[in-house]
């Protein structure tokens, strides 16, 4: 495929979870050094209302702690090691922050201080469980960092993503100019005809859905929307989404995707 006019954005899923412990600052910084256009991050709430970058409800898989994230305070989570479970730990002295819990505030501090252009995809988990609190605190945090009313030349551009239309509605109500992505594992009503809920400009289907429903992305694009696809780690999946001219590739393996794109 030779097409110099087309190159999708590459997002490091959970910071590039293949090589380094997911959702650690070291992983995110390395993904940027590798040339990723953006970063994907899941956020959930601690018991005392802090937004932390942890994918699972439970601590068990990605730390030496046990139990639900939502039942711990930030101070308790800060005592845990979030890197030692991963085979890539510790991999590189250059990226030492591979063990510490990452909060959204720490991630925003790091990307805004870097001065680099960074597209940050923040996925809220789980709106039904926390009521409106995750989105409320997220918008407040974005306001603190001056990211809740984005301008085209701002170096850090935040997009909020969710599988829940309800979360997108809350973001639209509180920060109407922050772009949103409607994530999907199946095709919700209306989306097959290109309709996205609550002002979402981008659809975010999983790659398995793209393979199972080849007409989906053309319909969404025909309606004027963009497409970001997750989690694209294998060559066959990458070829599939590139053939569909997706706008963004969300991957655990940003270096692999970037190298592949460079060879086209
Ligand atoms: O980028 C979307 C993707 O992250 C959704 O799946 O389970 O990895 O959060 P998950
Ligand atoms: Ca996610």
From TrEMBL:
Gene3D superfamilies: Phosphatidylinositol (PI) phosphodiesterase. GO terms for molecular function: phosphoric diester hydrolase activity. SUPFAM superfamilies: PLC-like phosphodiesterases. GO terms for biological process: lipid metabolic process. Residues 8-261 form the GP-PDE domain. Pfam families: GDPD (PF03009). This is Glycerophosphodiester phosphodiesterase. It comes from Actinoplanes aureus.
